[in-house]
Amino acid sequence: MRTVLLTGFEPFAGDAVNPSGDAVRAVAARWSGPERLVTDILPVAFDAATARLAALLEQHRPDIVIGAGLAGGRATVTPERVAVNLADARIPDNEGHRPQDAPVVDGGPAAYFATLPVKAIDAALAEHGIPSSVSHTAGTFVCNAVMYAALHAGAGTSLRAGFVHVPWADGSGPDGAPSLPFDLLVDALEVAVRVSLGAEADIDAVGGEIS
Length: 211
Ligand code: PCA
Prior knowledge:
Aminopeptidase, binds pyroglutamic acid, alpha/beta, single chain, five-stranded mixed beta sheet
């Protein structure tokens, strides 16, 4: 039986909640299989998050890894296409570390592309009425580091990995921040899992961004 590892994050930056972690818990609560879904809530700390990811990979040997995190300020659900080997933190992580211009993995390649079908996930999200767009930067904070670490671990193996950023859930973010209903965030992560299980190759569709 195939195994999917779906991770969310704990709150960070002084916020009381992180909808990514809450949505991952909700997906776990309603998962009906038949594949095995393993979920975890990662610490928002560069060292602890990547160490926890490595332990989860070792323990559960997933076929697919999907990380989820909050991108407060974005208005849509964004499957991420690229992870870069760069940790450059504008704010300290939850352990007080604030790496600057540092690699996620010493000597690793500059970047990895997601090995999940990001355009297919984006299209499926749209079909479900969930505002979405493919993103070409996962930032340079802990989410990017986790995505990079998962892709680095999977390089040269059959493990496929990617990341989905979600906006704030309605009522959970700062005043004026864009948000979506919490249930849509839960649906979005389940769609990402189902599409990733269903298709290895991406769909043939135009996309990209002009700056
Ligand atoms: N978002 C942050 C880290 C944890 C999270 O949910 C990020 O985008 O890096």
